[in-house]
Amino acid sequence: MVELEEGIGFEQYLNSSKEEYKQEQLQIYKQVNLADNTKEIISKISKKINIIIFAEIYCPDCRILLPYLEKMRELNDNISIYIFPRKGYEAVMEEYIEVARIPTILRFDSSKQLLGQFVEFPQDFKTMLKGLNEEEKKALIENYRCGEYNRLIEQEILEEIILR
User: InterPro entries, per this entry (predicted)?
Assistant: First the structure.
């Protein structure tokens, strides 16, 4: 298990990177608009939720995912996010999810039992990738990175992380 205090917030995450990556991340952040029902659900959360994220700002999939978590955090002070780099934390990821992939989101209860996880892509998107050849996978992932599947991201974070 990681110590939450070792994690950084979204602003620190942005400032710890190359300017190019920071600007790309900010551009994506500006484009993310949570659905009204998501905003309503998030605003009503009354218990403390600590979310651990393993991410690197150079990773395009991390850049897509993190704005959703930050927007949710901004809506409710009961939600805290703690961002950790992949490097140096591979063993922690492997302990809980058996792989060290980014982005990875983990949520634990107060007794440090894993409640929810999100690894790399939403589950529905992973299902879409099954059975495709490499060229088809690349095309679908490119569409994902261009925002075509953003609602899947939002929905899975809400259902598998926030509401657990």
Answer: Thioredoxin-like_sf
Q: Which residues contact 145 (CB under 8 A, 6 or more apart)?
A: 60, 61, 64
Q: Per residue of the chain (164 residues), give pLDDT as tens.
A: 788 999 999 999 999 989 999 999 999 999 999 999 999 999 999 999 999 999 999 999 999 999 999 999 999 999 999 999 999 999 999 999 999 999 999 999 888 889 999 999 999 999 999 999 999 999 999 999 999 999 999 999 999 999 98
Residue ranges of domains in the chain: 4-162
Give the CA distances from residue 60 to residues 2, 41, 120, in Å, rounded to whole numbers and listed in that order: 24, 28, 11
Q: Could you give the angle at the alpha carbon of 159 between the alpha carbons of 122 and 100, nearest 5°?
A: 45
End-to-end CA distance of the chain: 19
The topology (CATH level 3) of 4-162 is Glutaredoxin (3.40.30)
CB 56 within 8 A of CB 21: no
